[in-house]
Amino acid sequence: MLRRSAVSAGFALAFTLVVTPATAQAGPGGDPAPSAFATARAQAAAARPAPAMIDALRRDLGITGEQAVARLVNEAAAAKVEPAVRGQLGKDFAGAWVSGPTSEFVVATTDSTKITTILRAGAEAKLVKHSLATLEAARERLDAVAGAPYGAVPSWYVDVRSNSVVVLAGDTAAAEAFVNAAGLDRALVRVETSTERPRPFYDVRGGDAYYIGSGSRCSVGFSVTRGTQGGFATAGHCGTIGASTKGSNQVAQGTFQGSSFPGNDYAWVAVNSNWTPVGVVNGYSNGIVQVGGSADAAVGSSVCRAGSTTGWHCGTIQARNASVTYPEGTITGLGRTSVCAEPGDSGGSYISGSQAQGVTSGGSGNCSSGGTTFFQPINEILQVYGLTLVTGDGNPPAGCGGYQNTYNGSLTSNQSVYQPGSGGYTAGAGVQRICLDGPNGTDYDAYLQKLNGSTWTDVASGTTPNPDEAFTYNGTAGTYRVRVHAYSGSGSYTLGVTRP
Description:
The protein is α+β, with helices and mostly antiparallel strands. Helix content is 17%, strand content 43%.
């Protein structure tokens, strides 16, 4: 967004002097002594930035892969060195930041005699007029002003790079009045015109309430995506295609994109930009439950349900592919459970361990006397609408039980292996589910690859800093394989794969 700067009356430009680090002084052995920043940078480089982060920076910042690596390494080093430099400069510290496509480390000070200290740490030095403490005190005085008008003064913050407090102004006169009410030294403030209109963002969580049309209530099943569009899976009887929804806070949320009932009982809602689907379920009294995947639990397995009327209740799976007749007609292919539910819980999450099972359809009884309930399986919903389940950082079940095929092996640190072999396997179009159970205390990753001509291409991955991974991929028919990689640590693993 282009922004026109309007400098307030009485504003004085802060003087600056930038000094770059010189060659380090020789150590006892005659070789240059490494600076604190150089040492921290070497440690960060040895830890190796995550490939997914490198790819994202290339895409979103328009930089090369080499620049992305340098940027990540320098940023990690800066975060480690900055506290020590801040302590050395004391009251003369004026802020620190990284600059340029590779994030070179810069430290500002108000005392010219402290420049040598900054250079010895391996950072660029910038001499400025105002200390960080002075700028933060000015910001706090703005914080204390009551009633900043929405849209007229969308934001204010300390900008260490310009050595000033920036006040964004949708309405310049209102911004000037806001600054005057704080009684600030105008030399500290820079007013910039802005069209920003900030608004809250809300999370889409399984088990939370949502409202349809004029006010009927259901519960979110699981967060999903289709391409770049986010949303959630829920019950088909909750709404028809085109029906609008509001979240539990009564804020406009989304629109039903698909719905089937009776015969089936599934639907999905696409949410607007105010809402962010996250891979968790609101477990109410049980806290927040991470979603690790969607492996079908066996009959007899424990299963828990989250819903906006009765919260969190658990039971067991009694049958799969059950049929039930409601007043509206017969529904087939459901899971039957001993979990209780009541009106308003419809659409809510059924989860076994960290594995999504389905969304609440209906049942009998209640949560006072007990009852029987049915869920529409989540994997059918993903398949029908071409959705991908949003997962969190929860671990999949030990051993990746319940998957179509399992493979076992052992790796040493920084070693990779392909399962079920370098030639891969054939899969039809639809959702694939991948589960990796690695040794405790390690960081194991899994990469789903597809054969395109003679080249294997990564199409999905699980790369959290944990031993276990679980993810889904909705793709076309073809030849696939899974690369299991030991990012750190060694030991045995189990890989689970379910494919269409």
